[in-house]
C-alpha cells in the first residue's frame, strides 16, 4: 500500500523536497537505497519524533493545527531568532511572533532524522526500544552493554533524535527550570 505524505498533516517536508535536500548531502546511502514508501514512512516517523519534543512557544493555529510547526514565540522570550528571522512575521495581537511557514531548519531536521531512522540496524532499534522500556543492560555473545539507571530514566522520557536533528532544532527546544 502506498504511503501518502501530506505536508502539515503527517510530515514537515514533501518527498520531492526531501530528495532535493539529500542531493546536497554526503553519506545518504540509507536514503538512496530505500523505497519511496520507506522514505515516506521515515519522514512521517521523523515528524512524530520532532512533535514529541518540548518546544518553545505554541502552535500558530492553536486549535486546528495538527503538527507543532509553524509556531508562535512569546514576547520577551530568550528564544534566539537571529538566523531564523527571515521566517518570522510581525507580532500578533498577544505580542507573540509567529513563523510564516514551517521553518527550513525543521524540514532539514526531519530529513536528518529520517536518514537516521533508515540507517538503524535491527540491533540498534531493539536496544533503543529496550532502553525506552527501562532496560539498563544486556549481553550478546561476549559483548556486554550497560547504562546507568539515570540514563535509562532519561531514555524513557525523551525521543531519540540524531545529533544533526537535535542541533538544528536546538533553538526551538524548551529548556528546563528548577521549580522551587
Describe this entry's structure for a reader:
The model has no long low-confidence stretch (mean pLDDT 82). This protein has one domain. The protein is mainly alpha-helical. 40% of the residues lie in helices and 8% in strands. The strands form two sheets. Strands 1-2-3 form a three-stranded antiparallel beta sheet, with no helix packed on it. A two-stranded antiparallel ribbon has the order 4-5. The chain contains seven helices and five strands; from the N terminus they run αααβββααββαα. Helix 3 packs across helix 4. It is globular and about 60 Å long.
Quick recap:
With 180 residues, the protein is mostly helical. The chain has helices at 15-23, 29-32, 36-51, 104-119, 122-132, 149-157, 163-169, and strands at residues 58-59, 71-73, 97-98, 137-140, 143-146. The protein contains seven helices and five strands.
Mean pLDDT: 82
Number of distinct beta strands: 5
How would you classify the helix and strand content by structural class? mainly alpha
Low-confidence stretches: none
Strand neighbour order, sheet with most strands: 1-2-3
Note the main attributes of this structure.
two-stranded antiparallel sheet, 5 strands, 180 residues, three-stranded antiparallel β-sheet, 8% strand, 7 helices, globular, 40% helix, mainly alpha
Record the SSE blueprint.
Elements: H1 15-23, H2 29-32, H3 36-51, E1 58-59, E2 71-73, E3 97-98, H4 104-119, H5 122-132, E4 137-140, E5 143-146, H6 149-157, H7 163-169
Antiparallel strand pairs: 1-2, 2-3, 4-5
Helix pairs in contact: 3-4, 4-7
Amino acid at each position: 500500500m502506498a504511503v501518502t505524505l501530506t505536508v502539515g498533516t503527517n510530515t514537515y517536508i514533501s518527498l520531492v523536497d526531501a530528495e532535493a535536500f539529500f542531493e546536497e548531502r554526503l553519506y545518504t546511502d540509507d536514503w538512496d537505497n530505500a523505497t519511496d514508501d520507506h522514505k515516506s514512512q521515515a519522514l512521517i516517523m521523523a515528524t512524530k519524533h520532532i512533535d514529541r519534543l518540548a518546544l518553545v512557544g505554541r502552535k500558530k493555529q492553536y486549535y486546528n493545527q495538527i503538527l507543532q510547526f509553524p509556531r508562535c514565540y512569546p514576547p520577551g522570550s530568550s528564544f534566539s531568532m537571529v538566523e531564523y528571522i527571515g521566517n518570522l512575521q510581525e507580532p500578533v495581537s498577544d505580542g507573540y511572533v509567529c513563523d510564516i511557514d514551517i521553518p527550513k531548519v525543521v524540514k532539514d531536521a526531519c530529513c536528518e532524522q529520517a536518514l537516521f531512522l533508515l540507517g538503524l540496524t535491527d540491533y540498534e532499534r531493539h536496544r533503543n526500544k529496550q532502553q525506552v522500556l527501562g532496560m539498563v543492560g544486556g549481553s550478546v555473545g561476549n559483548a556486554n552493554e550497560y547504562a546507568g539507571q539515570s540514563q535509562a530514566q532519561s531514555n524513557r522520557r525523551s525521543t531519540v533524535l540524531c545529533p544533526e536533528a537535535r542541533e538544528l532544532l536546538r533553538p526551538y527546544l524548551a529548556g528546563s527550570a528548577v521549580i522551587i
